[in-house]
Amino acid sequence: MWIDLLTLFPEMFSGVFGNSILKRAQDNGLLRIEATNIRDFARDKHRSVDDKPYGGGVGMVMMCQPFFDAVESLQQQKPEVDEIILLTPQGQKFDQQLAERLARKQRLILMAGHYEGFDERIRTNLATMEISIGDYVLTGGEIPAMIVVDTIARLVPGVLGSAESHLEESFGENGENGENLLEYPQYTRPSDFRGMEVPEVLLSGNHERIRKWRLDQARERTRQRRPDLLNETE
Ligand code: ADE
Question: What is the pTM assigned to this prediction?
Fold first, then answer.
């Protein structure tokens, strides 16, 4: 999978994508992640990427031209771009289901903006979708873009090693009959830490009892913390 990021701050991405699992995936050729500076596509001598809003008002608006030119330049290369995604608080709410859909694509462009907002024509005539990571406002789309890329990347086959991918996890289908449950509690050594003991069942060696206990715990935890997830189950 190939993901291009359009941003005014490409260096923000180097720490996140230059370490750990995502670095290994790029080194192994499973992922290609490239951050491109939108300012490289500015045309005036000040390298402007934003301007005052028509109709007045405070703040600056990100201009069409650098975004359109940058996307068109990336589109010169094959394979074809599947989605051009704008990160904004007004977008479709990001969740595991959307991540799974995007992880099946070959090529994505993510556009992160700063300042007051984007010229509306970037939304309507360039982006193919808008994504929000939640109902709160960040200073820019870079951190949301990192969250989206990280979530998608770990779903690409081969990106997680076998030990990592065998983890049962919240928001996957980890119950019976495709239930969407939060993770059950996990423990490691010692079995008694400052008087806090590991549940006896986990030390029993009885795999069937352990499996049942974990499922019960996951259901109870989901019922207490996220009853909305239980209602989503078909
Ligand atoms: N940019 C600023 N806030 C955002 C959010 N919540 N989601 C996506 N992009 C954003």
Answer: 0.92
